[in-house]
Amino acid sequence: MKIDFKRIDHVMLCFPEGREKEARRFYEEVLGLEEIIDPERPHLRGAIWYQMGNIQLHLMTDQGSNASERHPAFEVANLEECRQLLESNGIPVKNLTPIPGRNRFSFRDPFENRIEFLQYD
Question: How far is the C-alpha of 23 from the C-alpha of 57, rounded, in Å?
Fold first, then answer.
């Protein structure tokens, strides 16, 4: 079984709690990004999403644990086969909060880096 990678879908970066205004100023005013806002589906835990070409940048406050939420998210064409491959190698996967139109899960590499795999419906 081989993972059928398509592209990087998004990258999640974190900022310290209480510094949302500074984060917005930097990413919107300095880098010139426009926030992705969907009033019918607010982002989880106060996340801020931006479109950057054909990928997205997601920002969220850092939760202050050793296992950071920072991560890349890779779009794959065979999500369930990826899950089976990881689990068959003893790597636990974590189902994530559903996002309409996307199936996804995350896992940690041997160095505690978080990685997300997702597949669009």
Answer: 12
pLDDT in tens, the chain (121 residues): 789 999 999 998 888 888 889 989 988 998 888 999 877 766 666 789 999 888 998 888 877 666 677 889 999 999 999 999 999 999 999 999 888 999 999 988 876 878 999 999 9
pTM of the model: 0.72
